[in-house]
Automatic annotation (TrEMBL):
Transmembrane segments: 12-31, 38-58, 70-91
Domain of life: Bacteria
Species this chain originates from: Paucilactobacillus wasatchensis
Entry keyword set: Membrane, Transmembrane, Transmembrane helix
Protein name: Uncharacterized protein
Length: 105
């Protein structure tokens, strides 16, 4: 069975991109930039799609043990639920960036 080593350049590149995206979200949110909410939603959408692809790949295309398949499916489902909850929280946070003049209307 072939797979990707955890120390391969592909894994390191993806991990580096993930860390940079999360750091940008933290920095932009900390500086109260208006677009930080939209950037957060964008990053969460990317990771939700990645979790969905992992779920589909393991469920339908991988030749692995049932226990491994079940564990990846459960972790992917938990990650998707957490990302959806985070998107809902980000949308609620968006209200803090709306101009006070617009809130009164």
């Amino acid at each position: 069975m072939e797979g990707t080593s955890l120390v391969s350049s592909e894994v390191i590149n993806h991990l580096g991109i993930a860390v940079v995206l999360y750091l940008l979200v933290i920095i932009f949110s900390g500086l109260n930039f208006r677009f930080s909410v939209y950037f957060t939603i964008f990053v969460l959408l990317i990771y939700t799609i990645a979790l969905l692809v992992a779920f589909i790949q393991i469920t339908y295309h991988a030749e692995v043990s049932s226990l491994f398949r079940l564990s990846i499916d459960v972790l992917s489902a938990i990650g998707i639920v957490i990302n959806v909850l985070a998107v809902v929280a980000a949308i609620k946070q968006r209200g803090h960036y709306i101009s006070p003049r617009l809130r009164k209307k």
